[in-house]
Task: inverse folding
């Protein structure tokens, strides 16, 4: 928390703040965080959020593995990550305190509900002694409030059961935090009225708790040395904004892409898997937008149904996480062999095998680029931010339909759930790339190639006089009929490779996100590490270091200038949330001594970790 | 989707044949099935461009290449999943799934289960030769116990699955059985399957002349067929034998069938009765094998219900409205 010297109207100014709400799974921390985010957005701040919820659906109350947290980083400028270290931790019970206090800055503020610090809860959290009663939290500013009782008092007039009253505690805490940062409550009040429209008593009680928390700050009840803060508004490009998560960005981008291609239908086939299911859930609501969703019996069938849909002239889309993508491998091979469009979204998670399903990793890059039998190239894209998810999804549809190829989009569990403000595009401003289905029987065969893209024609079954057969068996380059001819197989292998390689001519040149296009050091990233690398490179440059940030959105094929660009740097550092995958692809492709910076803890990079690595070079 | 129908004035069976050379072994039962399917297509006057044959992998899976319709030769066992996607994308297409006992009941057993219970409007034709042919003769999930094969030199110790029993158990609403060489019966059965809206499952006993020759002779042999088969017809008594002198009836006080002399107490076939269908599907010697439509009890097909639901979807279909659908704010 950067503190400015000028206090204004009794409030101190903060350039940016990181708050984490942490509590039991049942304490409503995600809702609290989302509502705080909404009020922050409407107050005009830039922000980045990240939820961290447990894998267990209903973990036993009070346990450390049942702690659910929501972090928001907001401020006036350049908020690109959910924040390295926490300024304010709201810990609703001892388990939340013990799990999350380590991320609190020295001197940071921790707000606790004293009523929750019972002997039983302390025991479940592994505390031998009550940390509120010794000096173990001396490094922090500890605000001890009996939130349970204060909430109970506030909701008393509404005649709730003690359990119902207890469930209002999060709104009390939210009210206090909204006061601390001078945010409004009105949108949360509206939201509570809508959410509990059928239970007005519950709505009123929650509003009473929210107001009580706010009033607690407003009145003299707060400790004297604590004041409210003001966070300046962000300077943003004019336009209409909303909050977007990576999942929403992908879902809407797919819809936008299908419309831009002039395809009347998207068939999205998925199978439940963490953290990819959210995309299926989001798209299941979009029937009115030409989306048919299908929950298949397994990952294989999901990819099969998607490919079948593409064969029939719709856009087939399937989605999963690493273990499920592994099962789709065979169908990807068929999509490559039959040259049909298919979009595959991989929400990567920590692995191998089941691994850590709720934790993020970028370790499916090799699987996406190379993880198939035989020479089976396809296109691979990766969104850099949650708002980039929208654009990347559109681009995936464009490339899949223009080049008649599967395209894998590498998202991850972090991007899927993280959220940030997004300038809402207008459909009229989006690119258009209408597909043309072949209808002319003259000179037709199914593997006739467009001389420029090398793509074969897309024919909808139902088109008269274009009846044809395709399949996984190798086919003759000149007729499309089954062929075991050795030279033909070599020719077809090359044609498939050339087609994907040719995409490099149709995508933007690689740009430099920060810094010069040559110099001492390039930090090269891909995917969700964008924010952390960006901030780190800026800090290093402020320290006078000669360093640039290059971020790849196209991983197969690489942009055509990438090799030349990287060769203009003395050193190349590749931070990745895996054991070194992009770094090996770059070394293999360009014979450059790129160096890895791996993080495989299931958690995103902190800015400081990358800054430190740059300093240590 | 609107489909322009060109006037295929009365196509003959040969018009459903592609220009590809058929490459099954000489004498393979698949030739007879191909002929029967093409005959059925002609009699049903199927529009070629609206017809799609989808297959997995195996000898039977070569089928689409030999048809002049649209065809998709896919991945081992997965044809039901791909066919489901085709129907979701375009319910107007007439889609046939051609599969075998290994493709449909072993590697693709899961997909077969789910496509049947979902009731996707497909004709699913399972060529049962009780052996893996294309991989050179290993025992299959329908091979009888004791089958000697390259992978079971001492004889298979596994119990076989009954294809029709499996389909009924999966919730199929149309289940029939026929034989490759019973041309007229097979054509009629295929036409019934096509008339059925929803998933129709047809098991065809098919002779693999190379790896499992004569495995159905005890049912299909000319000398024994009359006694070893019972041709079931809805509403007709279940009679069999050279002079239709034998009948099936429910053994009093049990849920079993028994063979009796034909008479007024012969059981009458009711193809809407799933329990009876299961009894017929499971008949083994000394009982005759049941042929014909064992079960037919239609319900709305899956894809029809999907699109019926789409009619009640929320949202106005405009992208700009979708993107602005929740809380937004203006930066000036």
Result:
């Amino acid at each position: 928390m950067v503190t400015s010297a000028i206090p204004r109207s009794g409030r101190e100014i903060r350039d940016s703040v990181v708050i984490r709400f942490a509590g039991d799974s049942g304490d409503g921390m995600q809702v609290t965080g989302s509502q705080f985010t909404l009020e922050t957005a409407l107050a005009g701040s830039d922000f980045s959020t990240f939820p961290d919820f447990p894998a267990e659906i209903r973990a036993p109350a009070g346990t450390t593995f049942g702690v659910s947290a929501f972090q928001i980083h907001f401020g006036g400028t350049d908020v690109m990550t959910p924040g390295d270290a926490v300024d304010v931790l709201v810990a609703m019970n001892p388990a939340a305190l013990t799990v999350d206090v380590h991320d609190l800055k020295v001197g940071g503020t921790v707000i606790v509900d004293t009523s929750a610090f019972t002997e039983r809860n302390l025991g479940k959290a592994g505390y031998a002694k009550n940390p509120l009663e010794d000096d173990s939290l001396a490094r922090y500013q500890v605000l001890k409030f009996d939130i349970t009782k204060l909430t109970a008092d506030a909701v008393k007039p509404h005649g709730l059961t003690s359990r119902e009253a207890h469930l209002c505690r999060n709104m009390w805490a939210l009210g206090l935090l909204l006061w601390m940062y001078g945010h409004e409550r009105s949108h949360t009040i509206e939201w509570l009225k809508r959410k509990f429209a059928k239970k007005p008593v519950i709505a009123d009680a929650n509003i009473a708790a929210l107001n009580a928390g706010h009033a607690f700050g407003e009145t003299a009840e707060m400790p004297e040395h604590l004041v409210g803060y003001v966070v300046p508004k962000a300077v943003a490009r004019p336009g209409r904004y909303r909050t977007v998560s990576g999942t929403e960005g992908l879902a809407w981008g797919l819809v936008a892409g299908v419309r831009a291609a002039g395809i009347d239908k998207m068939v999205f086939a998925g199978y439940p898997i963490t953290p990819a299911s959210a995309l299926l859930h989001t798209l299941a609501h979009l029937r009115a937008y030409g989306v048919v969703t299908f929950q298949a019996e397994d990952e294989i069938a999901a990819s099969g149904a998607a490919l079948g849909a593409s064969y029939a002239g719709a856009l087939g889309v399937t989605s999963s996480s690493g273990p499920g993508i592994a099962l789709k491998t065979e169908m990807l091979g068929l999509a490559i062999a039959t040259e049909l469009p298919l979009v595959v979204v991989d929400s990567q998670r920590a692995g191998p095998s089941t691994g850590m399903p709720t934790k993020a990793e970028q370790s499916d890059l090799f699987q996406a680029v190379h993880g198939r039998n035989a020479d089976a190239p396809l296109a691979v894209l990766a969104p850099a931010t949650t708002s980039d998810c929208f654009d990347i999804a559109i681009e995936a549809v464009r490339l899949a339909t223009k080049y008649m190829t599967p395209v894998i989009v590498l998202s991850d569990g972090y991007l899927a759930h993280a959220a940030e403000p997004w300038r809402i595009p207008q459909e009229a401003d989006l690119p258009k790339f209408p597909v043309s289905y072949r209808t002319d029987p003259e000179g037709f065969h199914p593997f006739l190639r467009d001389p420029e893209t090398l793509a074969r024609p897309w024919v909808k079954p139902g088109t008269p006089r274009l009846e044809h057969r395709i399949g996984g068996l190798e086919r003759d380059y000149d007729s499309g009929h089954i062929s075991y001819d050795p030279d033909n197989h070599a020719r077809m292998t090359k044609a498939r490779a050339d087609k994907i390689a040719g995409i490099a001519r149709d995508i933007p040149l690689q740009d430099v996100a920060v810094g010069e296009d040559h110099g001492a050091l390039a930090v090269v990233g891909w995917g969700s590490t964008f924010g952390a690398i960006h901030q780190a490179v800026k800090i290093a440059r402020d320290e006078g270091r000669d360093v640039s940030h290059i971020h790849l959105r196209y991983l197969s094929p690489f942009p055509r200038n990438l090799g030349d660009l990287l060769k203009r740097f003395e050193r190349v550092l590749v931070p990745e949330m895996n054991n070194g995958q992009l770094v090996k692809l770059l070394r293999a492709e360009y014979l450059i001594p790129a160096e890895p910076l791996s993080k495989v803890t299931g958690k995103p990079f902190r800015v400081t970790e990358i800054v430190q690595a740059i300093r240590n070079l | 989707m609107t489909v322009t129908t060109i006037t295929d004035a009365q196509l003959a069976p040969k018009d459903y044949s592609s220009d590809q050379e058929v490459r099954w072994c000489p004498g393979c039962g698949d030739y007879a099935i191909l002929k029967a399917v093409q005959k059925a297509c002609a009699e049903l006057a199927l529009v070629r461009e609206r017809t799609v044959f989808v297959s997995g992998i195996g000898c039977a899976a070569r089928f689409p290449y030999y048809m002049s319709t649209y065809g998709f030769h896919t991945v081992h066992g997965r044809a039901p999943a791909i066919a489901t996607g085709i129907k979701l994308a375009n319910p107007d297409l007439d889609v046939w799934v051609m599969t075998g006992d290994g493709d449909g009941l072993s590697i693709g057993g899961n997909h077969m289960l789910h496509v049947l219970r979902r009731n996707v409007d497909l004709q699913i034709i399972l060529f049962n030769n009780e052996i893996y042919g294309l991989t050179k003769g290993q025992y299959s999930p329908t091979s009888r116990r004791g089958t000697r094969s390259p992978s079971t030199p001492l004889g298979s110790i596994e119990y076989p699955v009954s294809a029709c029993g499996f389909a009924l158990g999966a919730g199929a609403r149309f289940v029939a059985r026929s034989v490759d060489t019973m041309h007229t019966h097979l054509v009629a059965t295929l036409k019934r399957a096509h008339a059925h809206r929803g998933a129709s499952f047809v098991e065809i006993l098919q002779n693999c002349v190379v790896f499992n020759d004569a495995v159905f002779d005890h049912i299909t042999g000319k000398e024994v067929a009359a006694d070893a088969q019972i041709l079931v017809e809805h509403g007709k008594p279940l009679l069999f034998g050279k002079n239709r002198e034998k009948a099936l009836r429910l053994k009093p006080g049990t849920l079993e069938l028994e063979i009796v002399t034909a008479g007024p107490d012969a059981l009458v076939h009711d193809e809407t009765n799933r329990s009876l269908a299961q009894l017929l599907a499971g008949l083994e010697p000394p009982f005759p094998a049941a042929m014909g439509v064992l079960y037919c009890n239609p319900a709305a097909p899956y894809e029809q219900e999907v699109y019926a639901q789409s009619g009640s979807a929320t949202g106005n279909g405009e992208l700009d409205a979708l993107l602005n659908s929740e809380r937004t704010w203006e930066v000036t």
Summary: The first helix of chain B runs from residue 29 to 44. Chain B is about 30% helix and 20% strand. Residues 1-5 of chain B have pLDDT under 50 and may be disordered.
